[in-house]
Design brief:
It contains 9 helices and 15 strands. With about 325 residues, it is of the alpha/beta class.
């Protein structure tokens, strides 16, 4: 990994601090580097302002002159009553160079942010960064596909069950896996379960990790009826396009909701927590419309595998050819 790619990856890691509190804006990371050392950094603040570049440049002050700004997303070029255009802030900062990891698909910026910076005599370069794109996945999907990124979480036994035959499901996985799930909730704008899960388990679906309770996502239930107090109703998987301000949707189940989202071709990411137990109970999925076994191959690619206590986690992403 060359120097620019390394700094962009560092900015992408920094951007994780913004998610999901930056909504409705994307979580962006920015790092100012001078003589090989970080002189300032920033990430999008809660509510979406100030932007990452503004935070980093304000922290650096005059020291920004001659530095290189690494930013995960192209600096915005549009004026807003909530704050100035970041491209203008960059132009006035005295930085010598700007390296951008992902161009902004927002038509208000889309290339014009970089063009404005170049017009000011500053070297501005686009270095496509997988790390930056991954850090902005929900924002990019919402811009390109008009819906949130959907992560489906399944906690399974070795025989693919999510509960005993009696319906008992607490707990399939151990404490480490459950803590990881809560961390994933904290990175989501909204969390969804099926109506049957709400009726059977009355789940809290909050974040129960020290210091992260305020990051508990909005609670949604997949139902054609009314949602109870503290819940919002989603009539169908396709209705996620109308979830205003939601870039990251975490679907926790049960089997009906998971099957419905898979049948609609609306799952972008799978988190599979597998416990070393056999229960002979209720399967995780129903028929989601797969026409042939051959059609099941090539739909998912493994992105991560790790051990969480006695449980195993596998993370899969849908391949580009997956149905939409």
């Amino acid at each position: 990994m060359n120097g620019d790619a390394r700094w962009l990856a560092a900015a992408a890691a920094l951007a994780a601090r913004a998610r999901p509190l930056s909504r409705p804006n994307p979580g962006v990371g920015a790092i100012l580097v001078k003589h090989g050392r970080v002189i300032a950094r920033g990430w999008t603040q809660p509510g979406g302002r100030p932007h990452a570049e503004a935070v980093a440049l304000d922290a650096a002050g005059e020291a920004a002159r001659g530095a290189t700004l690494y930013v995960t997303l192209e600096p915005c070029a549009h004026q807003s009553p909530r704050g100035p255009a970041c491209a203008d802030l960059v132009c006035d900062s005295g930085v010598a160079r700007v390296v951008i990891g992902c161009m902004d698909p927002d038509p208000r910026t889309s290339g014009s942010g970089m063009a404005r910076i170049r017009a000011a005599g500053i070297a501005a370069e686009y270095h496509p960064s997988p790390a930056c794109e991954a850090s902005l996945s929900g924002y990019l999907i919402s811009r390109h596909r008009g819906r949130p990124e959907v992560t489906l979480k399944l906690a399974l036994s070795l025989d693919g069950c999510i509960a005993m035959a009696s319906g008992e499901s607490q707990w399939i996985t151990g404490a480490e896996a459950r803590a990881h799930t809560h961390a994933m909730r904290a990175r989501s704008d909204a969390i969804l379960v099926g109506g049957g899960t709400v009726r059977a388990d009355a789940p809290r679906l909050d974040v129960r990790l020290p210091g992260l309770a305020e990051r508990s996502p909005e609670r949604w239930v997949l139902t054609r009826g009314e949602a109870g107090e503290g819940w919002r109703a989603l009539s169908s998987p396709q209705a996620i396009a109308a979830m205003e301000g939601v870039q990251y949707l975490f679907v926790e189940g049960g089997a009906g909701a998971a099957t419905a989202f898979l049948a609609a071709g609306l799952v972008d990411r799978l988190l599979i927590y597998r416990a070393p137990i056999l229960v002979g109970g209720r399967p995780a999925l129903g028929d989601f419309g797969l026409a042939s076994l051959a059609g099941a191959h090539g739909q998912w690619r493994l992105r991560e595998r790790r051990q969480l206590g006695s449980d195993a986690l596998e993370v899969y992403e849908a391949t580009p050819c997956s149905p939409e």
